[in-house]
Design a protein that fits this description.
The complex is a heterodimer of chains A (484) and B (465). By secondary structure, chain A is α+β, with helices and mostly antiparallel strands. Chain A has helices at 2-29, 31-35, 41-49, 81-88, 99-103, 105-109, 116-125, 140-150, 178-182, 186-198, 221-231, 271-276, 280-290, 292-301, 325-332, 342-353, 389-405, 466-482, and strands at 55-57, 60-67, 74-77, 91-92, 96-97, 133-136, 155-160, 167-173, 239-241, 245-247, 254-256, 268-270, 358-359, 364-368, 374-377, 382-384, 419-425, 434-441, 448-454. Chain A is elongated. The termini of chain A are far apart. Chain B contains 15 helices and seven strands. Classes of the chains: A alpha+beta (484), B mainly alpha (465). The interface between A and B is large, with 36 and 49 residues.
Chain lengths: 484, 465
């Protein structure tokens, strides 16, 4: 009986070998794919059991973790509240992460590859693993000014430092309280979530970069004017037709001016004058003459059609392809299907402000390890040069004229030269138009470029205009930055 | 060149056993202390009591073995004690997480089981005396198996009717019935082996047994199917049939029995799958546990999947005792203690435990090879294989090698019946190994060939001058 016993021993060995293989797969070789399965609460517990690093704005934490014990050891709290909600995002047990909490999750959680040595150090010194910190580029004064100036109106404000691309302010209204979603009271979290999602004003949406993209209206005229100047066929003084309404070719439709009056004597005007008084008919004709492709190409150079990551995901702004003549005329004044984010409008002004060089916009400035050592400093980076320095100079002069003597006078700041452009964008339905304003200052040494959109005219309703509703908000933000 | 072959008279190796008992109690006690330090931040109140208790039990059994089975295999007790101790530590750790007090009961059950093992060793001075009780064992075994079906005594827990209610506690009689049945198989097969190994018709390359000899295996098969049908106990059913086929093969040395056994087993599987929803459910969970519908379903894959997540979380080295979340898995202290240990001790720790089981089983089979009487061979191999199969079925179920069935991890899982059965198996293996390793011959003078036939000799050392 010894031979079969020895064979039985072999069978037993094989049985055990299969167990060694299966456990090796589950715990080592395939562990990450196993752990990625549905409903793995351990991953959630682990994320919450670690001290998550703070999100910082100018040395103050706008998001921070506090040890509270319980199953989810650390509570994520947002001292930045609604003011910074769209920048921080939230860190929710039930609904995951958004915005910076999501985009920089690995650093905040301490799992980033760049934190490898830091983790080893923690293991060796017996410290609890902790996450790194993320410093944002936001300027508290500019952020607060934008928040206050926008008031209770729906809309968004973005401010950029033209020479670096740093986002100085990013406000979207209405906002929400991230603490409600980060709570450990899961019932309350679900209620808050349902309520926020049911709100027709969509407080969870960051209108500044990821909202329903807006028709830009006349602020797009900066792009059209840039395309004209870059073509070499136009100067600020080029004479353009400026009738009260432009007959659109191939259709019976017309493109009327805002006040239904001609833009100059004998229905003629200049490029600079057309921008100053926001003359639709002149820019419509310019659109027809330049062609849709040229407009689109110029827009792309300013960053349209580009899905940016700042590192929050930015919805690309769009100029449709294959525009015919009447569509080009409408696109040239920021109507038809041209759609933009406020960030894109601010980027356009920032490029003009920065001698025609577009800097890559970014919201994150510094990533630090748990030991506060810098692991990454986001350096300013050139994204493109959409226009020449000469064109930028001409556009700046034209935009200064808009604020000094044109539609944007309410953006004037005493003692500072401001360059800007208004916009009043038809929304296509019966609602009041969106009020736009974009600007930068000081015109000779730009420190800040701003874009403001106030949905459906804000408090002014159908009486709205970019100059009346949006320009004062932009002024407040510029003043806040320049006051420093 | 002359070759001198001498039978090496083995020492009793009791000192070695004592050393290993010390090591295994030391490991368990250290692990127990670690749980207290990590979970509560202080050394556990009962640390000394638990350490001294385990050591006392180990020493008591050691002394009994020294007296009544001095040549017994020295590694069986230390390994069983270590696995038992690690199980206790994990149950205590889960107690802390769940605010239960199962570890105290488990420690009590350990004490009773070790005492029972000592009693078996003292009372049963020669395992061959069991051979005379072959048919008593059959009656006792079947009786214990069927006991849960008796109305008023049996109770159904989680769908399986394998428990009896003793008033103060519940008991799984199959854990003891298993041993009685193995005794019966050994006694029966040692007699029937000559008949059963007779050659019948040859089909293809396989020499089949005579059709009239198919009776016993069919009875065993029907009994297994009966357990499945009436007690809804997949694991015990599989265990009994597996042990029978293995012992039948060892007894007859005929591969054809394995083929017939596996065929019947496959047939039983198909039958069970067709007849029972809970079997279909187990198979569905085995094939795709990550299916969200199965995870959420009652009796679905939630337990399996959470166990897998725990093990994946543990990784190579584990989270450390007291630092994982094994309590997320339902029944982590019994059915899924493997997953709990995998999570906190890591792949390394789980490998170590599996290797301990492997050594235990291989020592059992070695005992079977070493002992000279056929009954002893079959008994030792049946007992050893029962541990192997049980470990495979449980750990294989948790790690998705096979569908999950309801068996317990010997020594490790929470449950007094299982502990008692497992320690009695150790007692029987100690008893048989004592005979297998006992030098019954005087030391032959140097230069003389041993008188015993080489076939029957124990460990031999070939000395080249």
């Amino acid at each position: 009986m010894n031979t079969p016993l020895r064979r039985l021993a072999v069978v037993v060995t094989l049985l055990f070998a299969s167990l060694l293989l299966s456990t090796s797969w589950i715990q080592y070789v395939g562990a990450s794919s196993v752990a990625a399965g549905q409903g793995n609460v351990r991953e959630v517990y682990r994320e919450f059991g670690r001290e998550r690093g703070p999100i910082v704005v100018a040395d103050d934490a706008v998001a921070t973790s506090t040890e509270v014990g319980g199953d989810y050891q650390y509570l994520r709290e947002y001292p930045g509240g609604e003011l910074y909600a769209h920048s921080t995002g939230f860190f929710s047990i039930v609904y995951g992460t958004t915005a910076t909490e999501d985009a920089e999750n690995e650093v905040l959680a301490g799992t980033a590859d760049s934190l490898f040595y830091s983790r080893i150090g923690q293991v060796l010194t017996g410290q609890d693993p902790a996450g790194g910190s993320v410093a944002l580029t936001l300027d508290p004064a500019a952020q607060q000014a934008a928040w206050d100036a926008l008031g209770d109106q729906r809309g968004a404000v973005v401010a950029i430092e033209p020479s670096t691309g740093r986002v100085l302010a990013m406000v979207s209204k209405p906002s929400y309280d991230p603490d409600r979603l980060a709570s450990h009271d899961l019932t309350a979290v679900r209620e808050a979530w349902e309520q926020l999602n049911a709100d027709p004003d969509e407080p969870l949406v960051n209108r500044a970069i990821a909202g329903p993209t807006y028709p830009p209206g006349s602020v797009f005229k900066i792009v059209t004017a840039a395309a004209a100047l870059e073509s070499g066929d136009y100067t600020a003084d080029s004479v353009l037709p400026g009738p009260a309404a432009l007959d659109l070719p191939q259709t019976t439709a017309v493109l009327p001016n805002y006040d239904d009056r001609p833009c100059g004597p004998d229905d003629l005007t200049t490029l600079a004058e057309a921008l100053r008084i926001s003359c639709n008919s002149a820019f419509g004709q310019l659109g027809i003459d330049l062609g849709g492709d040229a407009l689109r190409a110029q827009a792309e150079q300013f960053g349209y059609e580009d899905g940016l990551s700042i590192p929050l995901t930015v919805t690309p702004s769009r100029v449709p392809e294959g525009l015919n003549a009447p569509q080009s005329a409408q696109a040239a004044v920021g109507q038809f299907d041209v759609r933009v984010t406020p960030l894109q409008v601010a980027m356009t002004s920032a490029a003009v402000a920065n001698d025609g060089v577009l800097m890559r916009p970014h919201l994150v400035r510094t990533l630090r390890g748990p030991d506060l050592q810098v692991i990454e400093q986001v350096e300013p980076e050139v994204m493109g040069d959409p226009i020449s320095a000469a064109t930028a100079e001409v556009l700046t002069t034209m935009m200064v004229d808009v604020v000094d003597n044109g539609t944007g006078t309410s953006a004037q700041i005493s003692g500072v030269q401001v360059a800007g452009k208004t916009g009043t964008a038809q929304t296509g339905n019966d609602e009041a138009p969106h009020a736009w304003f974009t600007s930068f200052a000081p015109a000779d040494d730009p420190q800040v470029a701003v874009a403001v959109v106030v949905e459906n005219g804000g408090s002014a309703g159908s009486e709205t205009s970019g100059g009346r509703v949006a320009a004062p908000i932009a002024r407040a933000v510029m003043e806040a930055v320049l006051a420093e | 060149m002359t070759t001198v072959v001498t039978a090496l008279a083995p020492g009793t190796r009791r000192g070695f056993e004592l050393l290993l008992i010390g090591v295994s109690v030391g490991i368990s006690t250290a692990a127990y202390a670690l749980v207290g330090l990590t979970v509560e931040g202080v050394l556990p109140v009962r640390l000394l009591a638990v350490g001294a208790g385990l050591l006392g039990l180990g020493l008591a059994l050691h002394v009994v073995v020294r007296v009544v089975a001095p040549y017994a295999d020295p590694v069986l007790i230390p390994i069983a004690l270590l696995i038992n101790g690690l199980g206790l530590v994990m149950i205590h750790r889960l107690d802390l997480a769940e605010d239960t007090s199962l570890a105290v009961r488990q420690l009590g059950a350990t004490a009773i089981s070790v005492v029972a093992a000592a009693v078996v060793l003292v009372v049963l001075r020669d395992h061959r005396r069991l051979r005379a009780r072959t048919y008593t064992a059959m009656v006792v075994g079947l009786g214990l198996l069927l006991l849960p079906l008796v109305p008023g005594i049996g109770s159904t827990v989680n769908g399986a009717t394998i428990w009896i209610d003793l008033g103060i506690t519940t008991f799984q009689p199959a854990e003891l019935g298993k041993i009685a049945i193995i005794v019966f198989f050994a006694g029966y097969l040692v007699v029937a082996r000559d008949t059963l190994s007779l050659v019948g018709p040859k089909v293809l390359w396989l020499r089949l047994p005579r059709p009239r000899d198919l009776g016993p295996i069919l009875v065993a098969w029907l009994a297994s199917v009966g357990i499945l049908v009436f007690e809804r106990d997949l694991g015990t059913s599989l265990l009994f049939f597996g042990i029978f086929v293995a012992m039948l093969y060892v007894a007859t040395e005929r591969v054809s029995w394995i083929v017939i056994g596996l065929t019947l087993f496959a047939g039983g599987c198909v039958l069970a799958w067709r007849l029972f929803g809970h079997v279909q459910n187990r198979v569905a969970v085995w094939l795709d546990p990550f299916d969200p519908r199965l995870i959420e379903a009652t009796g679905g894959s939630y337990q399996v999947v959470q166990g897998l997540y725990g093990m994946a979380d543990g990784g190579l080295l584990g989270t450390g005792l007291g630092q994982g979340r094994p309590q997320i898995v339902p029944f982590a202290e019994s059915d899924f203690i493997v997953a709990a240990l995998g999570e906190e001790l890591g792949l390394a720790g789980l490998f170590a435990i599996l290797v301990l089981y492997g050594i235990l089983v291989q020592r059992g089979i070695r005992t079977a090879i070493g002992v000279r009487d056929g009954f002893g061979k079959l008994l030792a191999c049946g007992l050893a294989f029962s541990i192997a199969l049980q470990v495979f079925v449980v750990a294989g179920g948790v790690t998705r090698v096979i569908p999950l069935t309801g068996l317990t991890m010997p020594f490790l899982a929470y449950g007094g019946s299982s502990l008692l059965g497992s320690w009695i198996i150790i007692a029987l293996l100690l008893r048989i190994s004592d005979l297998a390793r006992r030098p019954d011959l005087p030391e032959p003078p140097r230069g003389q060939a041993p008188t015993s036939p080489a076939d029957d000799a124990r460990t031999q050392v070939v000395r080249l001058p």
